[in-house]
Every structure is written in structure tokens, then in C-alpha cells.
Amino acid sequence: EYRRKHVGEDLIAEVRKTAKQLGYSGIYTQAQDDNLGACLFYLKAGFYIGGLDTNVYKHTPQAGKSDIIFYSD
User: Fold this and answer.
1) Of 12, 41, 38, which Cα lies nearest the Cα of 26?
2) Which single residue of 3, 7, 19, 62 could bond 57 by disulfide (Cβ 3.0 to 4.6 Å)?
């Protein structure tokens, strides 16, 4: 029910603001490789792909999935 209401964009803006206040050089997040909506959202929000974790779900019910790591400077 919160999709398309800019809640995610507002949260990211607040995190960026807090990170800057704390002197951080950037932020990162991750999304499963099969969650196209989340991946596109982060790219649209100015993040870039900086890594791929192919081991995160090894030996779990979600084996075979990977996490894409998104960074924002």
C-alpha cells in the first residue's frame, strides 16, 4: 500500500542526510538478484552496483539466489 507514494525515496533521503551528518562517505544496501523491482528502484535512486554475493544463501532454503550490493557515494 506504500508503493508509489515516495516513502522509499524519503527514507533514502533521510539516510543520506544522516550519513552526511555523521561524516560517512556513502551508504549501501542490497537486494536479491530476483527482485527486479527493488534493483530498479535503487538504480533510479542513484545507487550503483558495486558487488554480487553469490554465497549469502548457500545451505539455506533460498540456495541459488544472490544478493546485489548497491552503493551511493
Assistant:
1) 12
2) 62
Cβ-proximal residues to 47 (8 Å cutoff; 6+ apart), any chain: 28, 29, 70, 71, 72
Q: Which three cell numbers stand for residue 24?
A: 560517512
Q: And the C-alpha cell for 3? A: 508503493
Check: pTM over 0.85? Answer yes or no: yes
| Single-letter amino acid, residue 4 | R
Tens of pLDDT along 1-44?
777 788 999 999 999 999 999 999 999 999 999 999 999 999 99
Cell numbers given for 16:
543520506
